[in-house]
Every structure is written in structure tokens, then in C-alpha cells.
Amino acid sequence: MLKKLCFLILLASTLISGCGKEREDAVKRKTDSAKFGDSIIEGSIGEPSNLIPILATDSSSHAIAGLIYNGLLKYDKNLNLTGDLAYKWEVSDDKKIITFHLRKGVKWHDDTEFTSKDVKFTYETIVDNNTPTAYDSDFRIIDKVETPDDYTVKVYYKTAYAPALSSWTIGILPYHKLKGVTITKSELQRSPIGTGPYKFKEWKSGLSITLEANDNYYEGRPNLDRYTMKIIPDTSTMFLELLNKNIDIMGLSPLQFAKQTSNPRFVSDYNKYSYLSNSYTYIGYNLKHKFLQDKRVRQALSYATPKEDIIKGVLFGLGVPADGPFKPGTIWYTDNVTKYKYDLEKAKHLLKEAGFDDKNGDGILEKDGVPFSITITTNQGNTTRSSIAEIIQHTWKKIGIKTEIRILEWATFITEYIDKRNFDVVILGWTIPMEPDPYDVWHSSRCGGKNLNFICYQNKEVDKLIEQGRIEFDLKKRSDIYHKISQILAEDQPYTFLFYPKALIALHKRFKNVEEAPAGIMHNFIDWYVEKDQRRYKLTR
Amino acid sequence: MLTYIVKRLFEMIPMLIGITLISFIVVNLAPGNPAQFLSSMNPKISETAYQKFINMYQLDKPVLERYWIWLKKLSRLDFGNSFASDQKPVLSKIAERLPVTIYLNLVSMILIIIISIPIGVLSAVYRNSLFDRITTVIVYIGFAVPTFWLAILCAYYFGVIKGWLPISGLTSYEFEDFSTLEKIYDVIWHSILPVGISVFGSIAGFSRFIKSSMMDAINEDYITAAYARGLSKNTVIFKHALRNALLPVITILGLSIPGLIGGSVIFESVFSIPGMGQLFYQSVMMRDYPVIMGILVIGSFLTLLGNLIADISYAIADPRIRYGKKK
């Protein structure tokens, strides 16, 4: 009888769990203790500044925080949003309420249980005026956050806002550790407590940060025992340390990747990976400039810019010509736009159409007696950009445009030139955020002050599309909107989109199960492992 | 003597105020501000962030008012908190980096003295000899070669090709698991390249200084007199000439006290040594005013103190110029 009852309960429970598609409980991946072991050492130029992710803006802080914390949502290997601490979410019909269903049984590193309280607390901390965070604007449009029970969070927005989902990828902070504490005085800045696959172990100031595998990670323990970030401020030294096998993974420069890492010794120890990075480099035009405000002039300059040659010469071929602000390989990108292949004849023709002519025969075009002479400005310390400036100086001269190059220290460049719109042409780059909303860079209202639309691009149609995209939760419809924006931008050429550079990584060969995907190689980091006989670091725990 | 020292110490206060006032203004004149570095040119960052940081760090107040606030805090020895996103107290940021810098500078300084004095003395005594010429060429090469370039070459040759020496840092990865003896050995092992290269670059200046000072001494009348009294060459040179030649060294040593807390950015970057040079450079690049000012205050205080110490030890070492006594 008892046996039967047990059987029935067992059957019922399997049936119930079989019905729902998503499992409520923490999903463990299959782990194999035989794969547990060894450490990985990563080289980093910069030292993380703060390990509470909402307080840091530098990439090395976020690299560490990414292993320690989880968000409610995360981006998967194909750069699509998927559940993390929330296993599913619903958007209400008026799109103003998002309900997150949290996983049960997720534990903080100090064994306290993760609940909806933590989520609410994280929201309250971000919008607190005393919190020096740079990420608050997406949270300020929230009306209120409710927690009906420990595993449900209801977020009420003042207006429908599609990028809101992406903002919940931010690391959730532990309520029980931070309540009543001034966040800037919290010890969690230096020894964080999260829910992620790695636990904080040690921070040696200026030298290294070490993390340790979290045995109780909700997806199952990561295979590698330890992760260490070694701070080596000089890239040449870092490369020598790589050759000496004192670090296992580092980002390479195009020169190192193409020319200095093909020798047999290197190849026998390291695998090289290259995939599109989340950024693009562009030539930006001051659209208030009397010559550059003419679309035909900008198209001419784009035709006179040899993108392919720049990629070959400056990046050793390790990049892809760019034609818009979205990343190829994501749903937001479209290939169906006007492209500007290097064509000096077309460029000359367009300039002539725009009324430029070389009347005095000095090789420089004029319009209404004013010679076409402009300055290309970029920041110091980026040799890629200064080389691009030299190349386009040369090719633009062929169509009769005289250019001067000015290279400035970053702070001076931004405050005195960009913010005051005191430039003709700049060479700069943008990171491409996972959340594609182009509002900040391309909307008319973002021109002026310290805003990011510093070239002052103003197109009513684009404005309308951007506004539509911000309230469209349907991925297909939203991507259609962005394809349209790409097409208009390609026609208007407010930027000459130059290239998407590749991320170049060298990784020691002993790491197995490394998978290249649109998101890079780190997406399945917790699944990397080293065969027993190849392990280098045996550490006593 | 004591009243003299106390008087000099009090004189340092207006001097320090003057130095800090000028530095504070100059540092603030540089384009850009810390808020901008935390918020600009990053599409992921909220537009309101800039103003928030400005208010938080009180950057909207006039420079002189901010200087006054800063000075009042300083008078209580409160150097404030860093503007960088780690928000640490300035003093603990400096304290973290100081030991490494002092260790390297002190060891280098001692080695430089040990090596330079014999070179300088011998070059002076055996002027224009083969030894003089060879050492001149070598020390000038050390002086002329850019340190970072030599450092990279040496790291590549001794570290990668030969594999004799570690390339960067001051400790091994497994440092924590070592015994005390192994730890000492490990640190010395890691110090060879950085110390060696910094010494090689600095011998020229110091040994040339000793040489000229020694040559001056050798040409003095009392040396001729000593020879005339029939003293041996060794006694004359090492007892009479050298003692007098070393007097100016005291000044140099006094003046290098502030140098002990300074570090070279490039050098520290190449060897991944978390020292003062990098801290200062990073704070300047980030316009982290409290840290910049903190380092400047400590540096200028040590400079003034070094001057004083040089003057005092001069008086002790040389009876002719003892304070309050006429020659």
C-alpha cells in the first residue's frame, strides 16, 4: 500500500513537472567531477575598480562581476535574451508590467537564499540618489516594484519601454548584506557576495584578483577550480608572459595576432580565436559644418574612403567593413543597405553635383570661393585611428579635399572639441550594446550638451522609427524597424561606418570544450575543463 | 640646533600651503573632470549620470572654495576619498602602493651608491685610462638608452628566450604556498630585472658626480700637502680626498628622499609593479583630484624635509659649516 502510494506520488510529481515547459527549480547542468580541476589565469591591462557592478564603469570590473553575480536575465551565446535568475517572464498587454518568476533554491555565496527581496532591493539601490551609479536611467521610468511572494517580482513601468528587459541583466545585489549600509562604504566593493558560478577569494591590490568555483552554483559547479585575473598594465609584457605560459588567456592586438603568433612554438601551445567584437569604428561628420551638411558631400567622402584597404593595412585584415550601427550576426542587422565601395570617380561626380569645383587649379576644390579644407580630429593613444586618419588624408586629397590631422589627449578632445562641437571630422568608435536601442546616439533630441549625438544628426523619420522601436516588444517587428533605420543611415551617411574590428583571443590549448559563438568564447566558460594529465595548477583548497 | 630645526619646520607650513594652492589650481585647470571620465562617450551610461557625479563630488563649486574645503580637511590630516569608482580613502590607496615603491627605490639607491662610488673614484684617480674610458662609455649607454625599451629587451632575452628570470610582478603565482625562506628568495628573484635596469640607468649621473667631486678634491692644496708629507697614495686618496669628495653626496641623498616615494610609470607598467608612478599617472588621467593632491602633498613635504635633513647632516658632517658658527 505504502509502496503504491509512493509510486503514485512519484508519478504525479513527474507528470506535474513534465507539464510545465520551464522548470521552476534551479536547473543543474550535467557535471562530471572528473572534469573538476586546474585554474585559468587571464591577463588584464586595467585593474577592476569596484566589484559592485552598478558602481563600476570599466570593463575589467564587469568581467569579474560577470562571474560573481547573476542578473534576472542574460544574453545567450547567440545574443538573445534568456532567463538567468528568473526562469520566465511575462509582459502585460499594455506592455507596462513585466512579471519575473524567480528560480527557487538559488543560494548566495554565504548560503542565504536568493529571493524577490534582493531584486526589489537592487532596484531601490540603483534609483537611490546617494548611489553613484551610471546605470539608473532605465530604472527611473519604473513606477514601482512589487513582490507578491518570494519568487515573483512585478515591475510597473510608467511607460512601455522595450529596452527595459535588457536592463534586468544587471547583477542582483544581496539584500541581507547591504540593507542599511551606505553602498560606497560597503566591503562588498572589495569582497563581493553574489549568486554566480565563482566566489570571490582574494584581491591583491594592483596585482591580481582570484575567484574560486562555487560548489553550490545553481547551474552546477564550474569545472575550473580557480579563475585569476592578473593585472599587467603593459601589453608587450603581457605578451611575453603569455609566451612564458604564465597567463592562459589574453586579448591580442591585430599585429600580434597576424604576425607574432604563427611560430610553431606558439601554435603548439595556444589556440587563437577571432570573432566580431561588439564595436565599430567610424568617421563622424559635423552636420552643422557648411560643406558637410550636404548629404552628397558625405556620400562622396564615403566613396573616397577605402574601407577594405584600411582593414588590410591597419587591422591586418582582422575586421569586417561596416555599413551601419548594428552588429552583423544579430537580428537587428541588415545587409540590405547602400554600400560605398571605394570609387573616386563617383566621389568626384557627387562633389561636382554639390557645386564644388577647382577653379584656381591648385588641386583643392572650392565652393563660392571657399576652399574645401577640413580637419580630421581623433584621440591620442590609439594608433589604429591615427593610421586611418593618414590613409583618408591621402585618398581624400585625390578628390580635391585638403585635410589636416589633429590628435588630442582624450579629456581635451571630449571637453573642448566634441562637447562644444568644435570639429569638422572625427574618427571614433562606439561599443555596440546588446540592447540595440539607438536613441542616445541617433535621436534629434540627443544633439547638444554632453549628449552622444554630438554630430547633431536630425532626421524626423529616424526619430519616429526610434520611438516606435522603444515600445515594440515583438522581436521581429522591432528588428524590421531597425533595418529601416540602417537603410536611412546608409543613405544619409552621417558617419562613414568603417569597420567592425574582431576580438582576438589567445587561449592555452589545454582548455577543452571551448565554443566560438556570436557572443564570443566566454559564454560557456563554466563548461571549460582540462584533462587530468594536462592540468597545470594543483591547488589545495 | 634644536631651535633651528623647529624654526625650519614651521617655515615649511606657508611653503606647503603655497605649493598646494598652486598645484590645486593647476590640476583643476586641465580640461575635463572626474565626472566626465565616469560618464562620457558610453551609450550604456545614463544621461543624468554626469550631473549626478558633479553634484556628488561638489565640482560645481568654484576652485578656491573647493581648495578651502580640501585644506580644512587636510589640516585634520584627512586626505579625503578617491573620485575613482573604488571610492577608497586616498591615504589607503597610497599606503597600498608605497611599500613596493620604497623597497625598489631603496634597494636601487643603495646599489647605485655601492657601484658608483668606486667607479667615480677610480675614474678620477686614473683619469683618461682605459678603465675610465670603458666605464664612461658603459655608464653613458645606460644613461642614454630608453629604460622601457631596454626593459622589454631584457625581459624577452632573460625571461622568454633563456627563461632565467621572471618577467613581471614581484611574486610568483604560488607565492602564498611558499615558506618564508622561499618567499624572500622569490621576491629577490623577481627584483633582479627591475632593480638591475633602474640601477643601470642611474649609475651615469651619480658616478660622474663622484668623479668630478673627486677630481676637485685631488687638485686641492691639502692633497699636495699630504703627498709632500710622504703619505702613501692610498691613504691620501681614500682618507683625505674621498672624505671631502663625499660631502656633496649628502646633499644628493637628502634631495633623493622624495624620490623614494616616486616611481616611473613606464617602468612600473613594463614590470607590472603596482607602485606610486602608476597610481599618480592613473589619477592624473582620470582627474582624480584628491589622489593627485594627496601624492603632491606627501611629495612636497618630503622634498622640504629632505632639504632640511641634507642641511642638518651637512652641518654634522662638516664642522666648517656648522650652524651658528662663523667659518
UniProtKB/TrEMBL annotation, chain A:
GO terms for biological process: peptide transport. GO terms for molecular function: peptide transmembrane transporter activity. InterPro entries: Peptide/Ni-bd, SBP_5, SBP_5_CS, SBP_5_dom. Gene3D superfamilies: Dipeptide-binding Protein, Domain 1 (3.90.76.10), Dipeptide-binding Protein, Domain 3 (3.10.105.10), Periplasmic binding protein-like II (3.40.190.10). GO terms for cellular component: ATP-binding cassette (ABC) transporter complex; outer membrane-bounded periplasmic space. Residues 81-450 form the Solute-binding protein family domain. Belongs to the bacterial solute-binding protein 5 family. This is Peptide-binding protein.
TrEMBL record, chain B:
PROSITE patterns: ABC_TM1. It is found in: Cell membrane. One of its GO terms (cellular component) is plasma membrane. The chain crosses the membrane at residues 12-31, 102-125, 137-158, 187-206, 245-271, 291-317. It is a multi-pass membrane protein. Keywords: Cell membrane, Membrane, Transmembrane, Transmembrane helix, Transport. One of its GO terms (biological process) is transmembrane transport. InterPro entries: BPD_transp_1_N, MetI-like, MetI-like_sf. Coiled coil: none annotated. Residues 98-310 form the ABC transmembrane type-1 domain. Belongs to the binding-protein-dependent transport system permease family. PANTHER family: INNER MEMBRANE ABC TRANSPORTER, OLIGOPEPTIDE TRANSPORT SYSTEM PERMEASE PROTEIN APPB. This is Diguanylate cyclase. It comes from Calditerrivibrio nitroreducens.
